[in-house]
Write a sequence for this structure.
């Protein structure tokens, strides 16, 4: 095990020092990172990486962009990147969120991908600042063995680099990796590295040139259920009569090691911690407060195993799928609920209305591969526009619901690879005249009126041919 | 009670009062009918309220699936639908083998709602079809009974039908079965027949044929109509009630109805070829002969007529004998005498249990027990005789039909518990007549006695101003004394009076009615008792609707000290199959679960509840009753990947596969004689404890049901059979547990793939190699595999 890893590591070094020589002339070099600390949290199936970078401007010109680089394999699984900067001194420090955008650099070695952090104030020459970066990786823990029996626990691989991949020179860096349990089968040693309890420490490493890379492989036990929603369609229907109806259709899969062979209920029931340790038994959905008429069902009817707890600040819906999900097992279900409209619908000063609702999936600790949000505006509303804090695909549709004539405008937003941090608010603006609310009642009333008129007419007209 | 004002004030405005009262009565009965409809609909919603809006039981799942297909693919695809998800590897032509009435009805409702942009799902429409149609059925009952005995009886019968438990059991929300619409069609066809009979209108006769067509589309029970109506026609002819109205009521029905019935793919040429329909053609000939005779009688002098009769009878008899002989020969040449198995078991109740175990095995084909009569029609059982008597006073064409209807349906319900459903409308109609007549008598007597006590002289004075008996109107108060004089136990005349409005009644008549009146006290007490009876009926019906007939049977609940416990194991298993097996995997189970598996799990099944292929079912039965290896071979030859068994031993669910197992043995043994029922019985007793026979303890069903069961409590105590199981520790060699639901009610096993043959290990071939037939030791196995 050790030997090939070492060889690969050596190869990596050679490669990156080569790359480094190419990039030497790059304009990035006037920044350097004097201290970097990385904490990788592997306790759930979503990999959370907290990166603290102390960036120093060693060049002569002020700069406002700091680049983060990722290997291409990680970029595909990268759900979100956030950056914060600490502001103020000593006690009065506040954290300010910074803009992060994916960018391209012309001379990226080995297809490395970049994210640019835009600083609020340009970093002047000789100054330094501390950036807190958080990024989340999904689908980055590969189960090995890929198939396990019911009584086995789930072991996974996690691949990364012992050194932080960065376009800048890093003077000193340390990486801490937190595993969910003390059971670690193996990990690549890159001296100095050691393991204590649930933590593996790599570093500190001194003075590594840009694009240094040292692949590591950690093989450890992770029995947290890999809850992945392959597809989630959320439909938010606005009724100006005072209700907001939300319907969410889930396709849930356990993305961990595939279940192999027998599923024995007697083992599962008698020793649940030993048998089926990695199975997905229940999920927790955090719903907005004042939720009402909650239902939880699938295509063949109601699922009776759910509990709703409500208080003034939040509602929690604990749902159990019909059967415990083992690796590779799937389930589909629908959650629906109603919400009071006044909590979510507001008016702007220029007489437009906007819906303020959360993006993302209400289930905790769940990755969503593909999310579609459909905001169904009331019939007769015009000029819809959506404001979402991150890039999404958008288009408009028309939906016909109860007694609609012209149809309701539907704003459809699609996004891939979501994690719980995406549960931020988005807004949909539109204009709506309240008179349209009366359209359907008036239609019904006139239909009945015509019916009665027809009846009266029929009773009073002699239709017989013979006199 | 009686207002002091004199009746003279009422006399000038009498005519307007009467029309007003008639109009008011019409509106009132309209609203009563509306309320009856609402009640019929809402009493059936207990299942939705107590459980959920879900399709019930077994057959409704198939109908639901067909409706989904219809909604998705349209009518033309539906007629041509070949379903490859069932009866693997045979498949089934759905379009040509289902009664499409229900599906088309629900599909049309769904389509209509959706074209009005009311986006109800197919499931919702299917769930609520039955309650809607029971409202229609109660209105049809009103119409039918009104034709027989007037509005009062009609309303009573409609109210009774709206909540008769027998009908509720088949038409609660979610019970999406053929009977749901068929009962409406049945009653409505009868109504149109009676209406035609009363009016002689060709318009109604045509409507009658169309209604009959709808019935043919909906349910196999249409043969009841096409036999009952000819019987009635024959009865009318025999009792000398032949009229042109009868001819108009019958002849178009046979011609048009048969033509239309032949349009339904599932009936087709059966409409003219099977014995169920012969009665109608025979009567069709007879009615023409009779009509001809009447015609001849009209144009000939009596003397000539006598001569003609002797001539025709002698020639005609010879011809008839010849024709009948040919017919009998034709019919007798077919093995079942041209009758379908179900019809034969109706005529000969012992037929099914003798020859077709598959029909006998269905619980709803068993004869009912006496308590089930009380449960299903309750107090109606006592009112029916009174209603029959009322029908004879006087006997009209219409009331004789009702008598015939109740008589035949009582017989049929005695043969098959399912046909209690046909009895229910008849019982409601006769009971409605009985109740309404009784009320007429008692209220009439009370009014007469009261008026007689208060103003004896006024009766005579007021006799000229007769009025109808709408006691609810405002005007009634002022006219109470006069009214009572009219409102006596007049039976047939009452209806006529209503139709004609006023009719001067004579003094003599009043005297006669005075004699017919009952004493005040006894009338009041009887009235109270009747109301009490009605109240008891209502209470019983509501209880039956809420407690007995609302359970959807796929969800079970039990109430324990710590609240309601839900057993949702069936759907758990079906959902598991749906999501975690391959789309083309075949699932074998006993046929009861076939429809549910295809509808809920969307997997191919070997057999299902449409028991059209006895051999196929027998094959599955044989596999279930064979030892593991033979069973594996049968299943493997059918491409089966999963075997599903229902097991109630852990939670005490009695209708599980172990309890149905003897039927599997019987049906399997009926085709494959190496399966013998006595092998599974110890001294004629069916048992699974340590006294059970080795054949029983080694059969697949036993093994799949009790695999690792002993590990749950250490003893293996079966809560259904109330005993410890016979064989506790055993291993499965050819099957592996794939899934077991939370309460163990459904267990799914996967067939292990055939093992590779290893050279040089042929010695162990008996236990190791599996499917190959070359092994010489195979012949040593006790049970011979039918698939060799």
């Amino acid at each position: 095990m050790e030997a090939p890893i070492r060889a690969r590591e050596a190869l990596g070094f050679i490669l990156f020092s080569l790359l480094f020589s190419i990039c030497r002339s790059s304009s990035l070099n006037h920044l350097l990172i004097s201290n970097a600390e990385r904490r990788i949290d592997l306790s759930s199936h979503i990999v959370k990486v907290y990166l603290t970078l102390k960036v120093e401007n060693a060049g002569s010109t002020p700069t406002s962009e700091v680049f983060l680089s990722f290997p291409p394999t990680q970029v595909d699984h990268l759900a979100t990147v956030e950056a914060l900067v600490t502001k103020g001194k000593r006690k009065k420090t506040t954290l300010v969120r910074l803009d992060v955008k994916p960018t391209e650099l012309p001379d990226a070695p080995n297809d490395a991908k970049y994210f640019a952090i835009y600083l609020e104030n340009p970093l002047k020459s000789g100054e330094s600042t501390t950036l807190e970066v958080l990024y989340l990786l999904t689908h980055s823990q590969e189960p090995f063995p890929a198939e396990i029996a019911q009584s086995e626990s789930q072991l996974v691989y996690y691949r990364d680099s012992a050194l932080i991949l960065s376009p800048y020179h890093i003077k000193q860096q340390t990486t801490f990796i937190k595993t969910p349990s003390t059971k670690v089968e193996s990990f690549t040693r890159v001296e100095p590295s050691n393991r204590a309890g649930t933590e593996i420490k790599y570093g500190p490493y001194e003075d590594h040139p840009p694009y240094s890379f040292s692949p590591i492989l950690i093989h450890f036990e992770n029995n947290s259920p890999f809850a992945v929603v392959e597809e989630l369609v959320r439909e938010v229907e606005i009724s100006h009569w005072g209700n907001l109806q939300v319907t969410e259709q889930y396709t849930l899969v356990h993305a961990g090691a595939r279940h192999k062979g027998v599923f024995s209920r007697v083992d599962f029931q008698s020793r649940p911690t030993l048998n089926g340790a990695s199975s997905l038994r229940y999920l927790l959905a955090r719903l907005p407060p004042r939720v009402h008429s909650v239902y939880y069902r699938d295509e063949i009817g109601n699922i009776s195993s759910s509990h709703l707890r409500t208080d003034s600040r939040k509602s929690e819906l604990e749902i159990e799928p019909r059967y415990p999900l083992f690796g590779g097992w799937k389930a589909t279900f629908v959650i629906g609920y109603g919400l009071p409209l006044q909590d979510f619908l507001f008016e702007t000063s220029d007489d437009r209305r906007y819906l303020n609702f959360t993006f993302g999936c209400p289930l905790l600790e769940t990755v969503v591969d593909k999310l579609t949000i459909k905001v169904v505006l009331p019939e007769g509303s015009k000029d819809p526009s959506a404001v979402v804090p991150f890039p999404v695909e958008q288009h408009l549709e028309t939906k016909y619901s109860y007694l609609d004539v012209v149809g309701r405008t539907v704003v459809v937003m699609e996004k891939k690879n979501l994690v719980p941090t995406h549960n931020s608010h988005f807004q949909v603006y539109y204009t709506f005249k309240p008179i349209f609310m009366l359209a359907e009642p008036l239609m019904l009333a006139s239909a009945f009126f015509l019916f009665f008129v027809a009846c009266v007419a029929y009773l009073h007209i002699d239709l017989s041919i013979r006199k | 009670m009686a207002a002091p004002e004199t009746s003279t004030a009422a006399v000038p405005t009498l005519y307007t009062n009467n029309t007003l009262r008639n109009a008011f009565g019409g509106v009132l009965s309209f609203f009563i009918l509306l309320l009856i409809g609402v009640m019929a609909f809402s009493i059936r919603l207990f299942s939705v309220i107590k459980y959920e809006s879900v399709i019930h039981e077994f057959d409704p799942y198939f109908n639901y699936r067909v409706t989904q297909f219809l909604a998705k693919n349209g009518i033309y695809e539906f007629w041509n639908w070949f379903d490859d998800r069932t009866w693997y590897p045979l498949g089934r032509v759905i379009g040509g083998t289902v009664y499409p009435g229900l599906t088309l009805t629900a599909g049309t409702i769904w389509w209509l709602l959706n074209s009005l942009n009311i986006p109800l799902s197919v499931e919702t429409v299917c769930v609520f079809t039955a309650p809607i149609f029971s409202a229609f059925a109660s209105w049809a009952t009103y119409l039918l009974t009104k034709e027989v005995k007037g509005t009062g009886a009609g309303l009573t019968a409609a109210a009774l039908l709206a909540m008769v438990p027998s009908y509720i059991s088949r038409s609660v929300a979610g019970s999406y079965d053929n009977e749901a619409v068929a009962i409406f069609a049945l009653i409505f066809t009868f109504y149109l027949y009676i209406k035609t009979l009363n009016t002689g209108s060709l318009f109604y006769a045509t409507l009658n044929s169309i209604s009959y067509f709808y019935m043919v589309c909906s349910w196999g029970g249409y043969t009841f109509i096409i036999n009952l109506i000819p019987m009635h026609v024959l009865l009318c002819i025999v009792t000398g009630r032949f009229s042109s109205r009868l001819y108009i009521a019958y002849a178009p029905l046979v011609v048009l109805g048969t033509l239309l019935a032949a349009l339904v793919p599932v009936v087709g040429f059966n409409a003219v070829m099977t014995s169920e329909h012969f009665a109608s053609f025979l009567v069709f000939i007879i009615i023409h002969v009779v009509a001809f005779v009447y015609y001849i009688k009209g144009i000939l002098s009596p003397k000539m007529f006598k001569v003609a009769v002797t001539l025709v009878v002698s020639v005609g008899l010879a011809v008839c004998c010849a024709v009948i002989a040919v017919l009998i020969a034709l019919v007798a040449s077919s093995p079942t005498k041209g009758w379908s198995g179900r019809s034969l078991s109706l005529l000969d109740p012992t037929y099914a249990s003798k020859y077709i175990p598959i029909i006998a095995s269905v619980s709803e084909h068993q004869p009912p027990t006496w308590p089930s009569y009380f449960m299903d029609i309750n107090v109606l059982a006592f009112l029916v005789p009174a209603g029959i008597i009322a029908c004879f006073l006087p006997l009209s064409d219409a009331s004789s039909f009702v008598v015939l209807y109740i008589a035949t349906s009582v017989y049929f319900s005695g043969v098959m518990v399912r046909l209690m459903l046909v009895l229910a409308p008849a019982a409601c109609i006769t009971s409605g007549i009985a109740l309404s007549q009784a009320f007429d008598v008692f209220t009439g007597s009370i009014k007469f006695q009261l008026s007689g006590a208060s103003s004896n002289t006024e009766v005579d004075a007021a006799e000229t101003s007769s009025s109808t008996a709408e006691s609810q109107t405002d005007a009634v108060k002022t006219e109470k004394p006069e009214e009572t004089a009219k409102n006596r136990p007049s039976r047939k005349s009452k209806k006529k009076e209503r139709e004609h409005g006023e009719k001067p009644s004579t003094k003599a008549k009043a005297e006669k009615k005075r004699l017919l009146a009952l004493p005040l006290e006894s009338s009041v007490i009887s009235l109270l008792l009747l109301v009490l009876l009605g109240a008891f009926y209502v209470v019983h019906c509501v209880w039956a609707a809420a407690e007995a007939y609302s359970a959807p049977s796929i969800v079970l609940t039990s109430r324990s000290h710590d609240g309601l416990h839900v057993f949702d194991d069936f759907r758990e298993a079906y959902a598991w199959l749906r999501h975690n097996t391959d789309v083309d995997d075949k699932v074998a189970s006993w046929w009861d679960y076939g429809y549910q598996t295809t509808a809920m799990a969307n997997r191919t099944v070997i057999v299902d509840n449409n028991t059209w292929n006895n051999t196929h079912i027998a094959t599955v039965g044989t596999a279930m009753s064979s030892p593991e290896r033979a069973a594996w071979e049968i299943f493997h030859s059918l491409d089966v990947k999963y075997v599903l068994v229902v097991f109630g031993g852990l939670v005490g669910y009695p209708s599980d596969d172990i309890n149905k197992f003897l039927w599997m043995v019987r049906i399997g043994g009926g085709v494959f004689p190496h399966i013998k029922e006595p092998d599974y019985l110890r001294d004629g007793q069916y048992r699974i404890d340590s006294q059970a026979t080795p054949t029983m303890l080694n059969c697949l069903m036993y093994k799949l049901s009790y695999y690792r069961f002993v590990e749950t409590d250490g003893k293996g105590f079966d809560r259904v059979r109330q005993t410890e199981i016979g064989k506790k520790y055993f291993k499965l060699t050819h099957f592996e547990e794939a899934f077991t639901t939370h309460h163990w009610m459904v267990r799914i096993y996967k067939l292990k793939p055939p093992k590779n043959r290893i050279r040089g290990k042929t010695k162990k071939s008996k236990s190791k190699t599996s499917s190959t037939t070359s092994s010489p030791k195979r012949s040593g196995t006790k049970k011979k595999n039918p698939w060799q």
Summary: The longest strand of chain B covers residues 640-646.
